[in-house]
Amino acid sequence: MAQRAFWKGYLKLSLVTCRVAMTPAVTESAKLRFHNINRKTGNRVVSQYVDAETGKPVDDEDQVKGYERAEDDYVLFEDEELEDVALESTRTIDIESFVPRNSIGWIWYDSPHYLAPADKVSEEAFAVIREAMRKTDTGGIARLVLYRREHAVLLVPRDEGMVVWTLRYGDEVRDPEPFFDKTGQSRAESGAKTMMKKLVEARLRPWKPKLVRDPVEERLHEIIDNRTKKPKRAKPKKSSEPERKDNVIDIMEALRRSLASEKKSAKRE
Question: InterPro entries annotated for this entry (predicted)?
Fold first, then answer.
């Protein structure tokens, strides 16, 4: 079944405009969701906003957003005021510039969304913009209001559509230098690097989604299935981490044993 669009608007490049529809490229709807339960009654526990001073519940219509400029002193904003801040980018993706497709590091990528023409009339203009980016190997930079906040976004061609990536802001990406400045002081021996390369090659596999399955989710489903059949407390799984007798690791010996293990696994396959 086709995914319903959660956003509809316009894609614009100079004087070329077309209607488009967008939907998140990823979803967590299949993940297990847990409720908080009162152990004594078996009833669900609900949360509510209360006044921090009086302790009394606050109705939805009495709640507003506030920016704290000093202790207990807030600048208040109505929802309509926040929505009016960037009206142009609420319904129009206006491509402002283009960048080489691989020039933006992966760390700046935030959330992906699929973008497609919203109707037959828009397909030609959409295809012209998409194929121009594909031939020049570029991505389009624009601004767009999503999730009640304006984002810088990157548009890149994908199949017959595009992917719209929200990009992280400059102050959201930390400088790696203070964290990595001392990590390059140790140098690996050439023999260890050669053996590690062989170990990497032994584990090289073609990409497929099953490589990033969620074993915790699978185990939780097993526990739920078992408890549905017969109520029984599941024993916690023992850690698979190898026992460490001290803090010293013989890298060369560990590599030899790892390679031997990989060879045995390859023979069994």
Answer: DNA_bd_Ku70/Ku80 (IPR006164), Prok_Ku (IPR009187), SPOC-like_C_dom_sf (IPR016194)
